[in-house]
Fold each of these.
Amino acid sequence: MSDEPELILADLSDDELVEQMKDDLYDGMGPEIAEGTQILLDRGWDANAILTESLVEAMRIVGLDFGDGILFVPEVLSAANAMKGGMELLRPILAANDAVKPTGRVVIGTVKGDIHDIGKNLVAMMLEGAGFEVMDLGINTDVEEFLKAYDEFNPDLLGMSALLTTTMPYMGVVIEEFEKRGLRKDCGIFVGGAPVNQEFADAIGATEYGGDASNTVELAKRFMGVNRP
Amino acid sequence: MTAAAKTLIIACGALAREVRALSDQLPAFDLRCVPATLHNRPQRIVPALERILDETGSAYERTVIAFGDCGTGGALDRLCAARGLERLPGAHCYAFFAGLSEFDAMMEEELGTFFLTDFLARQFETMVIRPLGLDRKPELRDLYFGHYKRLVFLSQTDDDDLLANANVAAARLGLAFEHRPTGLMAFARDLERLSTPLAA
């Protein structure tokens, strides 16, 4: 048992709490993130401010440390899982706030024949954190489901993920169908996943290749004209 | 280099034992391996193979790449095409142990199938549990395996210890267990076809 006194989040000042939440998210402490988020909401904080100043900022650091080889996939997953607890509290508030215009609208899914969704989920959550509205189609998504979601959701971006060499060519099938139907002029198509690379993305005519979750979000923001120099 | 060997087999470390087990059935060969752990960073597989190919140069009449695509996203096939080499058929070792059509049938039957071979049953901790961080963060198990339904143990040998390991692995991942012995027949046939020098 630790000799350190238990930290009472509610006793911290706003600044201290935000810093503590960043540490807790980095360490994958889900219940603490949910508790901290609720405390800030109770203190009258704006949901968007909580999201950007604590959760997204912490995930940004997690992303940087992952890129630098300081953190590995399990730690990133733990952090993302912890963020989920805070997001669940913030999402309904953010969705109800008409004054905040979303950064963009994204339909995302793991392609047909593939059940792997860790990377896709991470990207979806990071996009939400960056202010995108996300429709997540889940796993094993075929072209009809992508088309239906396009009709229903009118996205700015379509994101596809695959973990398997055998399933990634299906991304090309979806792109071809979108091309054929003339849907690409208003919708960027982003692809990613472990076996996917820039060369493959270029070969199938994707708009962008997202090498990792942070990079994908930056590309999505750039595509929407956010932070454009 | 073995004096008599005209064939070089460059294999994934996960196949070394099985390749050696076929020594009697294949023309004399030398074996070089790259670590199986590269599967966790498949972008490093092709550079590792290139290093061996550059080292061995034209010392062999025939070089066989005992790999599937193994998550290289076609990069391994591009290497093979550029160097005039052939690799084993299929995306990964499960396919060439089981046979391509049998493997496809299993995937058709249940998309959420996680496979173990003898090697993976033997090295489950090193190849699966630790790289996924499940030794220190067991709570992540369902994030990784939540969409999987069953674990199929494709066994190459008749080994009760490995069978027990595979069973325990399935329980640990929360998956139903199935055992399908493959032996080495399909693997041997592919390897023999690729490793026989053309002039022989």
Note: Strands of chain A lie at 104-110, 132-136, 157-161, 188-192, 208-209.
Amino acid sequence: MTLAAWLCLLFVVSSVVGYLLIRNVPSLLHTPLMSGMNALSGITVVGAIAAVATGSRALALAAVVLAMINVVGGFAVTDRMLKMFKAQRTNGND
Amino acid sequence: MTEKMYFTLGVVAVLIVLAGIVLMSRVRSARAGNALGAVGLALAVVLMLLKQQLLSSGALWTALVVGLLLGAWLAARVSMLAMPQMVALLNGLGGLASALVAYSTRKPGEASFEEYAGLLALAIGMMTFSGSMAAAGKLARLLPQRQVVLPGHSVISSGLLLLLLLSIVWRQPEALAILALLFGWVFAIRVGGADMPITISLLNSTSGVAGGVAGIAIGDPVLTCIGAVVGASGLLLTQIMCRAMNRSLLNILFSKGAAAKGSANSAPPAPAEAPAAAEAPAADLPAILRSARDVIIVPGYGMALAQAQSAVKTLADRFAELGAKVRYAIHPVAGRMPGHMNVLLCEVDVPYEQLYELDDINPDFATCDLVLVIGANDTINPAANTAEGTPIYGMPVLAVAEAKWTVVCNLDTGPGYAGVPNAIYNSPKTILRLGDAKESLAQLLQMLS
């Protein structure tokens, strides 16, 4: 099997796995989930780094900056949100 | 680093990310899950740096650090209220990054499978970018909130889509990029305010797909895999939102629009009458409030607009002091993004155990003493069960109409986004407190002191 065919298969399998994993997330957590997934979509930073090595450099570096904003901003915002979710018992002091 | 080692460690990075997602499905472990996802992603970045032997590239490190600082700065200064547009903005940047990856790595002249995958990633990434910018602009009120329907809107989008496909076939990346930008914009300006949760989760999905397809184009399994996971998650959320509105995705994206249809075939009730009707029972409002033992609060987008969430919490605390049980009923599409109300209420320290989903709380409306509606309209409109032919017909709504007493703290009694008048406003069991929700809530609080 060629690499491309293999990757297409991987794409399909990952979609199914992702679908099954995320089905369990309660609606209470939908916003953090969405922004967490948003951060993960910044994984394209990996592609941008590869592009710096193999492709047109200036555009690839721009892609690195954009993808990093996506990743870091996404994870940080998600963390800020999740910090707010407090249980009944512990909401006294903090 | 050998190809094989990169692959093996790449699998580890992916597994760490997946473990993070599993942890994110429970409130207690969600924060750790998010952190784990960040660790997996960081590992993937390091692996790629090693694989490409770029550890000593100053320019690359500068780009990484600039992105990191900008991202951290944005995340630190954004308010919870501005979260929907922040998510849209970040989505757009990710999409643009994927498009740039696809564009900058293409090898002109080769009509290979990878070439077409790259063009597809370029198209999806560009659409995601312009669509997200339009959505973020609407959410931030820089663009009109309402649907913008151009003359011949469907013809324009279909034409753009056709040209887009042709430029993939003819391998014209520059034309493709411009067409994709236009298509994303034309697509997103058509979506009105209340359909935003669906658009946001759809764009979330496409930003993942853009990354995954770019991964196929450059032959990277880590990017392919995680991109696909994000794509699937966004699609699932989109599906959940659509189901919550009882509308198909195509209907939401390509309809002439709920708002236009609704206002055409149903005249809104005269607003002047409604407050007058509310005067009569207002006298015993303090008694109703005081005697309530089981209170359900129904927040809507109006609560977000009035920034009334902490006033809601203060009132809820007062009810609790008087011995009442307080719960919140959260409609799945309340607000402007999935889970919007949950985030706003959790920000003001409402314990998440008090937040109930539609199916869990709907049977309890009939037995509770008092329902407090804060800026919600379409999500409580009983017309959804009865008024065939209206845009909201068949949408599951909160059964507020069955409650013994309902106090509505909305800005006015105009029909909501869907344009269908709400019979709850005219019900004898309803007490209207129109105007700014914060002020209305303060008045209620006074009655309880």
Note: Confidence is low (pLDDT under 50) at residues 90-94 of chain A.
Amino acid sequence: MGDGSDPDHADKTGRQDFSEVRQRLDALGDKLEARRPDPVDERAAKAERSNYAMAIRVSSDFIAAIFVGGALGWFLDSIAGTTPFGLVILLLLGFAAGVLNVMRTLGLVATPKRASPPASSGDAARRRDTEENGREGS
Amino acid sequence: MANDPIKQFEIHSIVPIEIAGIDFSFTNSSLFMLATTGAVSAFLVLSTSGRGLVPNRWQSAAEMSYEFVAGMLRDAAGTQGMKFFPLVFSLFMFVLFANLFGMFPYFFTVTSHIIVTFALAMLVIGTVVLYGFMKHGLGFLKLFVPEGVPVVLLPLVCAIEVISFLSRPISLSVRLFANMLAGHITLKVFAGFIVSLSGFGLIGIGGSILPLIMTVAITALEFLVSFLQAYVFAVLTCMYLNDALHPSH
């Protein structure tokens, strides 16, 4: 490349330089490729991480609803003196809410919300969110 | 005993204050909350004080955190959601810095106490409820009435929706608290293995390399969890704020 000053061989050297550059580029590309982490490997690690994250998120969603249902029932019972019916009923409702939470988190239930047209952006956001749940991690 | 993995979460008062029989002591938890807010403020104020058109590294980091949270909020709640940006950004930075502060040896992890995370979650849900009622009046209650449900089932579905809504602050706070608590206990337990194993002579010292490797790996994982938890907290905050902005079904 440095000898391009010779005017007689300008064309030839130019072509030579080009092939040389091409060679060096290829070599560099190979080196970069070798250093790049294996995409499959990385993806597997990511999936594993987000699985763990998802497990925690889902379980906390589920348990929280049951806990709230039970606490609410116990509280209502202690006010109204209807022990134990409030606790029993609200615990069951809490269980149902927990299942609903989980299915919403997993995106298994088409959320009835955002059915109306003005909130279409919210709908998109929610859908995106369910898609992102995987990488969101917890 | 120094090996007790729970000891790091103990709260002790530094400056005892008592007003009307209620304990208002300045504790190590308060100290680290102050340190967290101080660090966040210092980071943001100092890094942006140069106001360079071409940002230097610190300014770039501050701008990145801004862009990150702003993008998150805009995605989840739309442009109208940006009026909550100060809240979401403060929450994100506080939780992130508190989590990362906890990664220093001998530091106290503020977010490993459920009352702290629960207070943060209640702040979010309180904002959602207040703003929802202020903006939509009783229309906010439509949040609990899904469309296209038979009238017979409506009371049942409403009750389930209400419980589902009430469970949000619980799951929001429990998730953050449990992650930080469990992570720090795991770290401490594995680090404790190194000490107790190396007490068994030469073989023990050789064997203690295994928990040492584990500890290093878990430390890396904990840094990841610190960031992820702050991110999740902020994302869910954005989602709940979106409900306050558009409760219509």
Note: Chain B has a mean pLDDT of 87.
Amino acid sequence: MLKISKLTVTVDGKTILNGLDLEVGPGEVHAIMGPNGSGKSTLANVIAGREGYQVTGGSVSFLGQDLLSLAPEKRAREGVFLAFQYPVEIPGVANVYLLKEAVNATRQHRGEEKLDAMDFLKLVREKLKLLQMKEEFLYRSVNEGFSGGEKKRNEIFQMAMLEPRLAVLDETDSGLDIDALKVVAGGVNALRSPDRSVILVTHYQRLLDYIVPDRVHVLAGGRIVRSGDKRLALELEAQGYGWVESDPSAVSAA
Amino acid sequence: MNPAVTDLGELVGREYKEGFVTDIEADTLPPGLDEDVIRFLSAKKDEPDFVLEWRLDAFRRWQNMKQPNWAQVKHAPIDFQAISYYSAPKSDADRPKSLDEIDPKLLETYDKLGIPLEEQKALAGIAVDAVFDSVSVATTFKDKLAKIGVIFCPLSEALANHPDLVRQYLGSVVPSADNFYAALNSAVFTEGSFVYIPKGVRCPMELSTYFRINALNTGQFERTLIIADEGSYVSYLEGCTAPMRDENQLHAAVVELVALKDAQIKYSTVQNWYPGDEEGRGGIYNFVTKRGVCRGDNAKISWTQVETGSAITWKYPSVLLEGDSSVGEFYSVALTNHCQQADTGTKMVHIGRNTSSTIISKGISAGRGQNAYRGLVKVLKGAENARNYSQCDSLLMGDRCGAHTFPYLEVKNPTATVEHEATTSKIGEDQLFYCRQRGLSEEDAVSLIVNGFCKEVFRELPMEFAVEAQKLLSISLEGAVG
């Protein structure tokens, strides 16, 4: 699904990712953990194609394509979805309107017909239920005046609507109380499927109690320094990130 | 006055001094403006004497006035003696013969707006068949309106058929010497509409200058007068979303609205005159005076405007709130791209008791566009419990454009409640990226964000107009980002 090789990325001349390798197979859920400033969000943004990140080396291939050569909207239509750490407010634009544009842009890209209003509404209602959201939510302006939890829930709702091949969740758990976390995790779990891969970028192990990953990676100094199964996350929680950062031998343990 | 101009004046004078009445078959006047030109215009339309007197009075006052320079716009001084003040509509022989002769860029825009082929031809100034659909449609409408007593006709026709009615109201809202351009208009106006809605009648259809086509008849110095008698209602649409070909650079229109007791007038404008090329060459100067008066209790006047065209826009649709509990509203979207300049806003003058006004202004600047909001809220001494709410939002795209806000407040009654909110925001990289990450192209993303920004204004427009206005904004902003 996704193959990242020796990826090096700088921001304003400062190296953030430094020869990162990562491979995510179809249907797999990978967690990327790491201390603040280790480059987790940079990785998520580079996959999605945000401006301001200079890729100075390496490659990212998605379903056999050179992902880095595609404009952000092309990546999205090919099935790359980023759940934003800080979802953006768009005043005056109804949630449902953005969704419809987004869904139809992807459908058109796949050579499918646009959904008519009835079919669209049917799909929307189904997905709303999944995230335990009320219908009035559709008619509010995108993320405007939403609580932190509502914003994150909205991201997963959009993901459910767009049915991506690869979903990158950038600190979706931050700022969520335990009930909201359960709802969001439930939504993500419902979307797990053999042809959909998920990358969870998170600082805390807590999310992984609810979304159980196939692989856990620790990012430090711009590289994956350690990989393992879900037990690695527990180990990290017990010992803190100091443990991977101070133990150079850990680097080769991957 | 320089000698050349005097000569020109003499020339015009010679030609018409004695025989202007018999000479009215002339198709075009040479450039220049003096009293004889005005006499010619009036005679051409066979106007009642009072109109000629009124025109001449306006002209004499205008001669002592100066071009205003307070607006946040820049342009070379206009030579008013270089303008021809009358030219008959082009004959079919002079017009382009087919769409092949029309600028392909213009046609592309028509296509994007979804305008049918026949209408495209008419808009582009091509001679169209006499059996053109809208002619018969228009006639049907006219019959229907006449049955309920609604008068809707060219101003010149109203002067001939309803002189007393016109005389009672013409210039009663915008006096002939109100300002430089209004005075010029009063002296030389040639086209325009007249509307009278009788007592208690709710006009059953949106009055437009009969779809897009009739916007062709709009003149350089248009004058519109709308009277809503007691308890009546009318919604009037002006303008055209399609960019119009026009050879006149200066447009100085006057619109007067009179709403009597319990009457309501809703006036919507979509203005898309030629803005000039990307360097700003050749665009229209749109210097308009629009004002309405709520002359009775509970009267209401709403102005809604979407201004995307013209090189320079200078207009302040205003409401005088004379009647108790009368209401004035102003909803505006003004967009400037490339080298366009707009200085627009409103005046709300609270005179009666319990009067209220709402101002929602959305300015969008892109390219090197300059956009100014200028608004006055005035509460007179006797206006007990007046209320005003003003909101002025500016959206900037890129870093070469400008937004300016000039709110003026004059409150002479302590019971007034006046609120003003203003925001300026840049169209965010974050917003664009968010939309693109969801699969929208950059242009669709811009259009989505801008339409969201303008929503409060668009929802005031009649349905069909609103849809067109949205498309228009997207087209006007093409290439503004990136």
Note: Confidence is low (pLDDT under 50) at residues 248-254 of chain A.
